[in-house]
Amino acid sequence: MESNRLLEMLRGHQGEYISGEELSRRLSISRTAVWKQINKLRQEGYEFEAVSRKGYRLVHTPERIQSAEVLSQLRTKAFGQPLYVLEVVKTTQEELRKLAEQGASEGTLVIAEEQTLGRGRHGRKWYSPAGQGIWMSLLLRPGQPIVFAAQLTLLTAVAVCRAMRKVSGADVGIKWPNDLLVQGKKLCGILVESISEDELLKYCIVGIGIDVNLQQEDIPEELRSVATSLRIESGARQDRAKLIAEIMHELEQLYDLYKQEGFAPISHLWEALSVTIGQRVKIRTPEGELGGLATGLDSTGALLMTDDHGKARTIFSGEIQLGR
Amino acid sequence: MESNRLLEMLRGHQGEYISGEELSRRLSISRTAVWKQINKLRQEGYEFEAVSRKGYRLVHTPERIQSAEVLSQLRTKAFGQPLYVLEVVKTTQEELRKLAEQGASEGTLVIAEEQTLGRGRHGRKWYSPAGQGIWMSLLLRPGQPIVFAAQLTLLTAVAVCRAMRKVSGADVGIKWPNDLLVQGKKLCGILVESISEDELLKYCIVGIGIDVNLQQEDIPEELRSVATSLRIESGARQDRAKLIAEIMHELEQLYDLYKQEGFAPISHLWEALSVTIGQRVKIRTPEGELGGLATGLDSTGALLMTDDHGKARTIFSGEIQLGR
Question: DNA-binding region(s): which residue ranges (chains A, B) (predicted)?
């Protein structure tokens, strides 16, 4: 409620500064409380300029992702349709899984403005604040042998990486298997959940989380050394609807290519965008830590490396730390 | 209701014959209706002797699977516990999946007396009548890379095959990947559903359906050339609780072995019990039909064959017809 009245006042000033003291007096709350409300609004995507002695000025009201805007920019046959744009959800994965169980078609896309229980790889929490990022899940029904599941994860990383580079110009690269980075800092995570029956994939829920328009101060302090956003790296606010449409386009193109030509062309594209291949890496696997040189992908999508004793290794699962 | 009164009368005769005519008269229904009721009871596991001029005699009342009986015979650390013995369900897979989502532990077992929507491989209906078979689902949480999912399917086939041979003495063999046969006729199907996150298996719902005590006349006529039961093949009624306990024992032993030693020992056991390896096979794959000689398993659990043109093939998914 206080934040609503605060917004009203700042809007009433038409982009002029209004001092913290005046806000405090008019709202009958302390200066600290004003500052807390401002921060809360920042997390919802509002942007303020704060200048000492002058006060606060509203410079940006958060946009919402509009279905119509996404749909009008889609250049796909099926990916991104039907489209569900939701407000606050626990996770888009969960929402899409319900739809999948009810028979939703391949290409169905669920987007949320905010996730309250966003998760990353290995069950880690994924910070998904309102209005600043893209939190979405796409349904695939590949009917492939389960042995190839990792390939779909790599394919997704390639598609999202290409779309982000194209739309923003930022120098985005892929860390094996599917983290997207700029200069060693993460700005996109991909999480693929697969449901299989015997040796065939029944469906895949492809979760994509992108820090699009977060600013330095929106990123929790303890994450600033490892996390960034497309806005920080490109120097410009990005149009989320446009980026979503571009990702759907890239994904559908690569998926069609994969179904026709198999994994080889995807593997080449992945290696070209990779920041892992040709690097010394340290990798945490279920069996312990391993150091060595990452050399390429095998035909299933596993990582090939030569360990510190010169032995060839195939890594199916693990987490990489670069350049150590 | 009529079948209840019919049973009462037959029970009242203490194993002596009672004529169809008398049953018809006492129940005030036609002879055909008597015969229909007898058949209905047979499907529920009751057994009758029918001798012309003498009439019907009740020779067996169906047993139910008792939790206590299974639990008292378990020799496992975790497999088979907790145990849920249910009456009629759509599928045990669905029941166990609900439990898995709520955090059920590895080894949790769901058994049902009857499934109304029992399914086999490739979405086919699986006939699961009351009281005659074992329809059950076991929860595994292997945490293995998804690329190895097929191995768990093969492991299950080995364990169930060994348990069936041990308990009944029947000459049960494995058709790739996981059908169990005696002399070319199927008596057990296995269906493994896996839920994965990125490259790791989160959990597997291992479905096992065994035709245990069905008699020739219990098997739908259109299936008699391809389906059989353990009772038909061993010549004796089998104790279902004992067989369940033995399967849990074999599964846990092999699963522990697999976790310690990997797939190689499981692969050897599978090949030894296989009716596929060393045979000419015709196989229907997603890419079309293929003929050739099945030669073995690869390290992921895929089938290796030499096709009719002498070319080596790796089959990840498909359905085999033997000896064509």
Answer: 20-39
Q: Do residues A107 and A138 touch, judged by C-beta distance below 8 A?
A: yes
Q: Which of A269, A316, A274, A317 is nearest to A295 (CA)?
A: A274
Q: What ipTM was predicted for this assembly?
A: 0.73
**What are the tokens at B154?**
């093969």
Instruction: Please check whether residue A147 touches B, CB under 8 A.
Output: yes
Q: Is A253 on the interface with B (CB under 8 A)?
A: no
Cα A84 versus chain centre, distance: 17
Measured between CB atoms, does A156 come within 8 Å of chain B? no
Q: Give the Cα separation of A193 and A176 in Å (integer).
A: 17
Tens digits of per-residue pLDDT, B31-83? 899 888 888 888 777 788 888 888 899 888 777 888 888 998 999 999 999 99
Instruction: Give the chain B residue nearest A285 (alpha carbons).
Output: B145
Q: Which of B147, B148, B197 sits opposite A191 (nearest CB)?
A: B197
Phi, psi of B120 (to 5 degrees): -110, -160
Q: Which of B198, B286, B317 sits opposite A191 (nearest CB)?
A: B198
How would you write the pLDDT of chain A (324 residues) with one tens digit per residue? 567 788 888 877 877 899 888 999 998 999 899 888 888 888 777 788 888 888 898 888 777 888 888 998 999 999 999 999 998 889 999 999 999 999 999 999 999 988 888 776 666 666 666 678 899 999 999 988 887 888 999 999 999 999 999 999 999 999 998 899 999 999 999 999 999 988 888 999 999 999 999 888 888 888 888 899 999 999 999 999 999 999 999 999 999 999 999 999 999 999 999 999 999 999 988 778 899 999 999 988 899 999 989 999 999 888 888 654
C-alpha–C-alpha distance, residues A172 and B117, integer Å: 49
For chain B, the helix, strand and coil percentages under 3-state DSSP, each to the nearest 5: 35, 30, 35
Which token pair is B57? 């005699």
The identity of residue A320, as a single letter, is I
Inter-chain residue contact A317 with B200, CB threshold 8 Å? yes
Q: Residue A187 has which token pair?
A: 């700005």
Among B229, B230, B208, CA closest to B218: B229
Check CB contact under 8 Å for A145 and B198: no
Given an 8 Å threshold on Cβ–Cβ distance, is A153 in contact with B316?
Answer: no
Helix ranges (H only) for B74-148 are 92-101
Contact residues, chain A, for B137 at CB < 8 Å: none
Core vs surface per residue B90-110: b (16+ CB within 10 A) or e: ebbbbbbbebbeeebebbbbb
Q: Give the nearest chain B residue to A152 (CA atoms).
A: B198
Nearest Cα residue in chain B from A153 = B198
**Closest residue in B to A192 (Cα–Cα):** B198
Residue type, B111: I
Domains assigned to chain A: 2-60 (1.10.10.10), 67-272 (3.30.930.10), 276-322 (2.30.30.100)
